[in-house]
Amino acid sequence: MREFQCPSCRQAVSFEQTECATCGNQLTFDPSCIGMTLLASKRPCSNRDIIRCNWSVDGAESYCEACRLTRTIPNLGSARNVMLWRRVEAAKRRLLYDLRRLRLPLVSRSGASVAFDILSAETAPILTGHLSGLITLNLAEADDVEREARRVSFREPYRTLLGHFRHEIGHFYWDGLVDGTNFRAPFRLIFGDETQDYQAALRSYYGRADRSYDRTGFISAYATSHPWEDWAETFAHFLHILSTLDSVAGLPLALDERARQTLTDPYLESDFEALLALWEPLSRGINELNRSLGMSDAYPFDISPAVKGKLHLVHMVISAFRDQQRLAA
Question: Quick check: 254 and 239 in contact, CB under 8 A?
Fold first, then answer.
């Protein structure tokens, strides 16, 4: 994500900031213009105090468009739950920023709307997942210790709140942008036949004693469980790539003219090869920086030719939708 500026003093501020550290002005993010504005000129979201939501609202609404998408909030009877919910909503706002920059809809062709249930497993187990636009997230995923324990238990190289959201929204866009379209055939050619029994496939995956997998064909182990999960994992990685490249745009790097053109707006870049040409050396560089600090790789994945083809299909589907919208306007 790109660095923003305080509209008053023009100093750099982050996406989550509610106050400029330099001039002290109260800030709010205006999703309508995708920029920071002064709170004095806007109305704040009613969740600003409880979860530090810094988005503004328009009209008579009490909550911003991000918070309005949360259908169910966790039990706020404990300070811990409030803290964890704050982290969840912060990650969700980054997801919605991605989708706005990509110009993707939050309502499917069938009329299903994106919504979120953020639930705490205090009375019953909660499974993170997606169903017809409704994304359910277990609040425990916002606890760093619990999430890390699950990452190790499932032998995953990467597990984050934002990664969960990007994965689950990928299911929504398969339903809305692939199913029932001309992309169904190429999807099956590249990802496989999605009509195979989904629940049986997941049971088989979780029942495996050996979690090794074909790294030349899949971005992650979980992607091997079913074509739908392969798509969702690939979609999430496509968003990882775009968001990171968007962050790079503001760095003082020596780039050629084509690279600078791509970084003008990676979310709208029409040339998939240009995106990957930037991403591959950048991801290696990020990993080397992490190793220099004694940390694990930030992007512990390899983009094989087969995975590259899957990422390319995600890019094609998104680009085709935008083209259709432009022609219909």
Answer: no
